[in-house]
Amino acid sequence: MTIKTYYDDDDVMCSCSGTKRRDIKRLFNEGADQDAISRRTGALSGCAGCEWDIGEYLRELAEQQK
Question: Looking at domain 12-65, which CATH architecture does it have?
């Protein structure tokens, strides 16, 4: 059985910077990689608590493009 995860675009992915899932998705769709997303949003540059979640989300977005 496969469990589908539902994401809300308003979910905050990085509490240090307040970066929302929609911001990451938009930047990814514009061609930004993880480093560029970090520079543009401030995500991944504070406590690093969001590193795994954002990395996993970016992998999911990349899989969807295949």
Answer: Orthogonal Bundle (1.10)
